[in-house]
Write a structure and sequence with these properties.
The structure is a homotetramer of 446-residue chains. In chain A, 32% of the residues lie in helices and 12% in strands. Chain A has 11 helices and 14 strands. Chain A has a 4-stranded mixed beta sheet. The first copy, chain A, has a 3-stranded antiparallel beta sheet with strand order 1-4-14, with helices on one face. The first copy, chain A, has a 3-stranded antiparallel beta sheet with strand order 5-6-7, with no helix packed on it. The first copy, chain A, is of the alpha+beta class and 446 residues long. In chain A, helix 1 (25-40) packs antiparallel against helix 5 (117-136). In chain A, strand 8 (346-347) and strand 9 form a beta hairpin. The two termini of chain A are 30 Å apart. Chain A has 2 domains: 22-170, Four Helix Bundle (Hemerythrin (Met), subunit A); 196-444, paralog of FGE (formylglycine-generating enzyme) (Alpha-Beta Complex), CATH 3.90.1580.10. The A-D interface holds A 96, 98-99, 203, 222-227, 253-254, 256-261, 307-308, 311, 378-380, 382, 385-386, 395-396, 400-404, 430, 444 and D 96, 98-99, 203, 222-227, 253-254, 256-261, 307-308, 311, 378-380, 382, 385-386, 395-396, 400-404, 430, 444.
Chain lengths: 446, 446, 446, 446
């Protein structure tokens, strides 16, 4: 997926990070908050206000809610004399924390024309100044420091949602708005041939065990028994997906889960989201990107698939989706091998400008694990053995969503690089297509 | 209805109208277009972009669509060398004219963040300059002149919709935005006592017969037979409506049309739209206005009723709604009597700043016929005998909506004064409440 | 419309009516109740229980509700010592009378598998025996006699609904059930040529003024002013409607009301309800009747149109729909002329077995006014001037439905002959197609 | 759950099973088919025809579809000269087998009043006779024999659905129909105290490995790693669930999955399905059973819970739901222990008449594993490692539903006894409540 090329470097890039970036919470705070602002920089007040669909949120809401998170969980309890920017924001920008109180209805986020974008930016500045004051005076309790940490990762999650929700919005506009122009043209080339890597059966550990930050749903680290399996060396490409389409993929119920077939029929799915045949030219597939319309590139990772489509494609290919445990075992092994992963994802502070790794440096191991596209697994999103949500509001962060969703692994071109890790569990409902979601095949070992 | 008090005069009022205002099409064009801009002046780009509900449209869409009307029906056919501002606008801002071609989906008008408000203003200026060029060079054909004329009345209709649609939008915002502050406090006072005026049976003419502009649906002038009837000297007040509510008006199905009762139950109607009891204080009714929340004033005309509520109220009052023919006969007689109507409505160029007529100068005849609130009649909206829609696109203006709607007469505080006349037929579906719609009682003569 | 041919005489016909049938309430009661039973005779318990759609009711419900009407409004108040058949039936078979109390939900009428059909018949017999006891002992108050009278007309309305609702049910069954076989083949022939009859302008009386029964909504008799008009000598035929279809009637929005066009697109209307092209044979239109599938006969009156289709067809034909006043004036004149109307409708006690009047005896005046098809007018259903609903439960019979419906006049092949009169006002929503509804054209006089 | 007491033995019980019942396919075929008929015996044609809701099917449809299964998969391919009972049944009674062809719409199954119940019984007899002819002549291929076998298990699944779907239907009838009267009164008594049984961590095998029949989704047998866990000795009781309710269980979002909370609010859930407080008597909970209304018995297993409610209850109880692997490991151990399970479920040929085992003979091990209620696990329904759907139509039996459903284990009072086994995987969507579904707690070992 080289949607990444649609992004130019910022006109005024954020200040370079200091050497102490990873250890200095204040510096990281500054960098990450600035990245969010940089993402919104090309957008008009109108762009930032509208909600493309009930599943998506306006950019302005993302800007405000991430600030609300720091205000509610860090400043109000931790900074003596802090005064809330606006008393009504407590409800207005609460996403889903029942323990904090009432929430503005999710599907009405797009009706909030006030506060304006300018006021929302002032809200951010108000929170930033107070937070930095708190950080810089030192002596932060461990609990508050943990909230700042999770707030930064939370902010990065919303950075990705800003990009995906905006793409959904612009796609509904017949004028075809461009977010940022593409940076150069990808080098012509084909994807490397699909290979398989084998892993042997065994009782294997998965899940986070530190050091470093992880969300509560990434643990506890625990043992699973896996049969021997093989996993593809790269994600499936648009070219391979076109073969599936040409072979009647969208017309053959035997390839689909029953529910998926029903949704595909009801919604008239004929191709990935954002793909369209040019009028009167069958098979001439173009796709809408944040840099505008362009032809589908057979070498890029296929993207914007629902779980149902990923699953049908895998069945058509004589393979299956990996479980999340298989994926994590494979990715961890790859990282330990020392091979350098060259993904396309959101750098802190800017989009990565390089050509896609898959074309430039075909890996001998597993490539494109991180960046490019989120990879649908076959694993429903449930708590790990022994999982218990944290006490307090953070207990609502992940645990209460553990039903009727599927885990995706890896990370996309819109995921911040520092936000990625092998244990990360992303999750979406089976019909979701507006995320940068693709597929990596797996199969039982022969 | 003294919502009018919510409006301040413009900081920079539009230029005074010349003495030739009624005869000079160019001057009227300038004035009316400026009034539209003045209405949008207090609004942010965000406010102008969002669609409160499928029935309403964004202010930006109103600004663009009214310009599209002049461009499509006057400039493209009538101004040699005119080049359209943007080729995609032909579809994007077409409301419902099948004869012009395809239309952007009505319920997606709120997703169009581009063009921006600034670009939309530029579109208006582009059209204004070209239209004035056309008008000023003279020699306009009668047909084109007629299109300019209807375009101005069309623009005035959208001026009212800007106000009503904005009110619907701000009402969904928990921050309670204020459009324009109220101008002073209404003089304390009571509504004049309700009187009745009698009209005798006969074959009577109604409908427009010129001179002056009227929409096609106001004619042909034709004869109707009316039994003797009486009509109330003023609209029903909020105080009278509170009596209806206190008497169980919303709990007694025998007062309601069956379909109305069903809607009232399904939607939980307990009071007019925009009324709310303050938390924990039963009967302490407040209402949201464009100047913010304020207590309901028993002396003002009750407003924001659906047809069902107006009908139930009339039945409760031992009366009925007037037919549109009765209303027009009564209003025409009133106008001929020479009594000066003091309504509260939108002046060309500014809101009327005076206190409500009903309080200041109780009429001996019928008062508040025009301005204040649109008055629901009992007449379904159908074509008059002999009515035929005009040829061409204007045939789609009114005729194709003549089903399942009810006629309202008079005009509201949001209706431009020069847009009002006794033959004017407004129409909305029976459940609509977001217009400034009230009720004047009638009854069979004893 | 010769759907009438689908009905055979009953195997065991009801007893011949006595000479005193029109004056003897008990005899009429017996005859009409037996006709209802005869209509249900070919139906299985299963057929009688299921609800084809929310707008329709099961036959069993019709059988029970008509008995409930006599029980509730005549027997309980009027027959000393009468005991209700089942206490729960008071709610279960109350259609919409709030003054009687709660009602079982309309859309769940089809879930009531108990009482069984046999029990429902026992309920009818229980009510019949008691009612006849009451009638035969004499001394009935005028008020109760009036309730018996309205109960009989009410029963006849449900006789028609049994037929239309059953047709809707059988149409959803791929096995194509036959209700009763057709009786012979219609004589081959063409419809008589379409003529026009002119009526002159004037203030004319319409509405019922007795003697004889009428529903409250047929009065008061009152004056209307009509312009001169012409009305077609017969309903439009299927052949004429096929011309409309062949001329793009369903593809040309300019022929349609906006709301009708929307419904036609949303529901995929391409022909009248119950018409279908045989697979792979374009233009080979067949229709489902209660006697099974048969080819569309161009000579018969077109049927199962919505108001929107009738209106679009009239516009295409360069004509319009008549107002209900025009229709009544024309029909009254026709009846006074002494010409014998030969309609196809439901005789008391059996379906009329004759061939359609339109083919056998082309009238010199207006033909097929009664029977064949209900004729859509252009008149919304509202109360006549001076109309007041009766006191008590009967006030809910008609008045509360006077909104968002259109008047139909005449009567269909499923309407009992003795139920028909020139002042009768039938009414349905604009999208309804499952009634036997057609169209007679009108136009302004030249 | 002693719903079982609601059933009386059949007036004319099916013939006793021969000693060879397990080996003689023909005898088993006869017995199982007769059991189905016996289940429908108390029902009227009306009862058998109506569809309570889109998720449920009419009894008549179950009677026909199970016959269709044998006809389509055994008789047509296997019995020379067999002629289908009715050509249209191929589509009409196809549930979801795309490989067989088109299907009648699921939500319209209740509109099929023809074939009648009598004709449907004739269809069954036609199929039975032919199938027995085929079986008795011997020489059945292994493939056909396998289809007969799966057809019998399929029939047993539909036996349970007949009961659950009928309960859903009768519950909508205000007359409160009784299916079969209860047999005696349960012995007064309390549930045994809740105990916990511990299982140690390890790599453990689960899944079917024969001998005997199992569905494809019960295999392949495979290894899983389990942490040490404890599982409750019996299902949760109605009394325990009442404590949850009294403690605000339905008012505390922190106990619920977010999606479950949303559904509970939207649907107004306040108690298990079929529970109702008697009017005006708070806390006086009654429940509708197939033997009519009766008070909730605190000792019985709580039933008719959605997954969301089971999950919230477990969280409230400081426990969790078991995984399906934990459940199977525990159940298998219990069976191997030789303790005799005394469940309440559907005997082949009749309901079990005994009082509930939990009251009569409290087990020292795990009790009520089979019969009484299906037990929600926490495991989403996915294929086991190495699972591949069978070739052909049977491949559509289970595999294509492996998404967005949750596994239930055990079996209910409506499950045929011979249909139950420890590896059986039942599955329903998270919001389903009309099955006999309850909850057994589990927890991590201390």
């Amino acid at each position: 997926m080289n949607e990444i090329q649609t992004a130019a470097p910022p006109a005024a890039p954020p200040p370079a990070e200091s050497a102490a970036v990873n250890t200095d919470l204040a510096a990281r705070f500054r960098t990450i908050r600035e990245t969010t602002s940089w993402l919104a920089a090309p957008l008009s007040p109108e762009d930032c206000t509208v909600q493309a669909m009930p599943d998506a949120s306006p950019t302005k809401w993302h800007l405000a809610h991430t600030s609300w998170f720091f205000e509610t969980f860090v400043l109000v309890p931790g900074l003596a004399g802090y005064s809330e920017f606006h008393p009504d924001f407590r409800v207005l920008f609460n996403s889903y924390y029942n323990s904090v109180g009432a929430q503005h209805a999710r599907f009405e986020r797009g009706l909030i024309t006030r506060p304006s974008l300018a006021e929302t930016r002032a809200y951010r500045e108000h929170v930033d100044a107070a937070l930095l004051r708190l950080l810089e005076k030192g002596g932060l309790s461990d609990e508050l420091a943990a909230f700042v940490e999770v707030g930064l990762h939370h902010e990065q999650q919303h950075q990705e949602l800003i990009v995906t929700d905006l793409k959904a919005l612009f796609a509904r506009n017949p004028l075809g708005p461009v977010y940022r122009p593409a940076l150069g043209t990808p080098a012509p080339g084909a994807a490397p041939p699909l290979g398989w890597k084998r892993f042997e059966e065994g009782v294997l550990p998965i899940g986070h065990d530190g050091p470093g930050f992880a969300f509560d749903n990434e643990g506890p680290r625990h043992r699973v028994f896996l049969e021997s399996f093989e996993i593809a060396t790269r994600p499936a490409t648009a070219g391979e997906y076109l073969e599936f389409m040409d072979d009647g993929g969208y017309r053959r119920p035997e390839l689909w889960l029953s529910e998926g077939w029903g949704q595909a029929q009801a919604n008239g799915w004929q191709a990935p989201l954002y793909w369209l045949e040019r009028e009167g030219r069958t098979g001439d597939w173009h796709q809408q990107t944040l840099a505008g319309w362009r032809p589908v590139d057979p070498a890029e990772a296929v993207c914007h698939l629902s779980f149902y489509e990923a699953d049908a494609f895998a069945r058509w290919a004589g393979a299956r989706l990996p479980t999340e445990a298989e994926w994590e075992v494979a990715a961890t092994a790859e990282l330990r091998s020392g091979r350098k992963e060259e993904g396309n994802f959101l750098e802190d502070g800017r989009f990565h400008p390089a050509a896609p790794a898959s074309l430039a440096s075909p890996s001998k191991g597993l490539s494109q694990l991180f960046g490019d596209v989120w990879e649908w697994t076959q694993s429903p999103y449930v708590g790990y053995p022994g999982y218990r949500p944290p006490q307090g509001a953070l207990g609502e962060y992940n645990g209460k969503f553990m039903v009727n969703q599927i885990v995706l692994r890896g990370g996309s071109c819109a995921t911040p690089r520092s936000h990625i890790r092998a244990t990360y569990r992303n999750f979406f409902p089976t019909g979701a297509r507006w995320q940068f979601s693709g597929v990596r095949l797996a199969r039982d070992a022969r």
